[in-house]
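FW: tagging you since you asked about this chain on Friday. Here's the raw sequence from the shared folder, copied in full. Didn't touch anything.
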Amino acid sequence: MDDKAYKKAFRKHMKNKRPPADHQWSPFRAAEKRYKARFPPPDLRDVLDLSRIESGGKSVGKNVDFSNELKGNAHAVHTRPIRLRCEGPKSRCAYVVPQIPGLVILPEYLAHDEQRSLIRWSLSSQARAPNDTNLDIHYHLPAEGLWNIHTSAQVEERTSNNRSSSKYIIEPKRPTGPEPPDYPPEGPRPLIDNIPVEPSNFDTVDTQAKPPLPPSSHLPPIFASKLLLKLRWANIGYFYHWGTKTYDFTKPKAEYPHELRKICKDVVASIDWQQVWDGVDDEEWGEEGPDWEQWPETYEPDAGIVNFYQPKDTLCGHVDRSEVCATSPLVSISLGNAAIFLIGGLTRSVEPIPILLRSGDIIVMSGPGCRRAYHGVPRILENTLPMHLRSASAGEDDWQPFAEYLQTTRINVNVRQVFPSGFDPLARPGTV
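HL: got it, structure written out here
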């Protein structure tokens, strides 16, 4: 760090160190501030890192690249191992956190080739029409997708030294009608306090107005390669309306990706849910009681989002309230650079657990408490891309653009089930 950057980081650190006397951060907010800090860098000794758990003298993290000296603490939080019900390389342990019933962590679940396949899918197939992204509001995106335009531009640059072709410039949309407020395509998402969706109020929430956000009126044309770094999310399955934090069922549901569906269903089927919920009180499940025994058969992912994080991006602490099915597993897949994930309780007053998530790790949030727990991502850990994603393997001559993009990127594939088994979203009170 040069002298100027050091002084800037130090000033910001001292400013953040002295909160107003009348301001008290909640435990969750305090943890976010701690791990967001750029100076000094966050101390990972209190961050749970299951890649460093040893069993029988052998490290669970035998396939993890530790060359970047990224070290958490395998014993920062009490965990309990459970054996996965699958054969082959994935036949080892997952871990439950008794402090948060329903939370299951599967370190290194995805093999290297599976990670690369999902990364390819995320960028070249999912972040394009008919799936909405955060950029569709503001730009006329090409039908073939931003990533594919970006890689075509790279090929042309190498072969013809043409770096200014107009066909690789993305034009912004222009608002119609009265001058709208400016909605930037990047930066923190505004916080919206939506009510929890459940079968009894689904009709009310479903008929809530979900107007499209207007495009910004101040955006210039931009090269595809630069716009790619502003990509933040791509929709999966049912369309999610960010303005109201509800699903918009007036829009057609996109076909669910077969590979992703299989991975998530395999994850849910491989977990011994009896071990997960053994000894946990059933009272929070409501009148109908727990339904985890049926998950291996009834779990069906139908919505989700691919998140694309750059180094300074964060995901503020929030609660997922948009799914009618408020207990079935949410499957979250980490790819690329590592991140710190926080998960607490039903309010921000609960001290969150910090978890180090590396490429290939999967976490599953399930049950009434865990699915409605506050969680967030306060920090992307720079320069933590594992070696197996940095260069092409045999037969992958086209991997280099992915490796370059991943140098600064974390991808998170977040998969949900909106409706519980047997729930008919088309049924309305008073209809036949």
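FW: Residues 55-59 have pLDDT under 50 and may be disordered.
HL: agreed, and The radius of gyration is 22 Å.
FW: great, closing this out.
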